[in-house]
Specification:
The protein is an all-alpha fold. It is about 65% helix and about 0% strand.
Length: about 230
């Protein structure tokens, strides 16, 4: 649901581009405070027209409590064996093995299958996360190109990789690196959780990309926007 909300925002941004371009052209040579205030007011009307709430930008952070909860559960589950005073015994009846890897344990000795199993999971987690970033960049570029289709060529703006985009990319790849560090240092179950989540996200992203045109038409009807 969080991803679908973010994806709908991207489609709305695509629909908004012609109106935003007209607004930019209208106030291109008007830099006085009154004109800038009027521009902001008209921009707010456009956001309202397309039902763009700024709160939607924060939707991705709703996943953070889920992540923290899963991380704490995986890292502490080995403590629920009844040895701590008055604690329940939850894990004695559970099977922690997955393809010969103990999901409750960390990487262990370099000569063990546990170590190499965790290394394989680590590589797959990092690889699938990088694939997500590559696919996201590709789909954003395609979405931007679609948003410029109905705008005259001389008015189109090239998609620039500015300093802000560069900083965002750095943060994304830094997070991927940190994800790899977490997998390396945590119980194997955390890496498996991330791997399954990444694969699911890739499938979801691909299906959304393939059905983007249909979703765009449905969104136009929902917002009562003509061609």
């Amino acid at each position: 649901p969080v991803y679908n909300s973010t994806n709908d925002m991207s489609l709305k941004m695509q629909l908004m581009q012609p109106d935003l371009q007209k607004l930019e052209a209208k106030f291109a040579n008007r830099t006085d405070p009154e004109s800038q205030q009027a521009k902001q007011m008209e921009q707010m009307k456009i956001y309202k027209k397309y039902k763009m709430g700024f709160g939607g930008c924060l939707s991705i952070f709703f996943q953070l409590p889920v992540f923290l909860g899963v991380y704490q559960a995986v890292t502490r589950i080995q403590l629920t064996d009844g040895t701590i005073l008055n604690s329940p015994d939850w894990i004695s009846g559970m099977n922690p093995m997955f393809l010969g890897i103990n999901l409750f344990e960390e990487k262990g000795n370099i000569n063990s299958w546990q170590f190499w199993g965790v290394m394989i999971i680590l590589v797959l987690v990092v690889g699938t996360q990088i694939l997500q970033q590559v696919f996201t960049s590709f789909s954003q570029k395609k979405t931007y190109e679609r948003s410029q289709e109905n705008i005259p060529a001389y008015k189109r703006k090239a998609m620039q990789q500015n300093q802000t985009n560069g900083s965002m990319k750095f943060m994304m790849y830094f997070m991927i690196f940190m994800m790899g560090v977490f997998v390396f240092q945590s119980a194997a179950g955390l890496g498996l959780y991330w791997l399954i989540g990444n694969i699911y996200s890739l499938i979801q992203m691909y299906l959304n990309y393939k059905n983007a045109d249909k979703k765009l038409e449905r969104l136009k009807k929902k917002l009562n926007i003509g061609e």
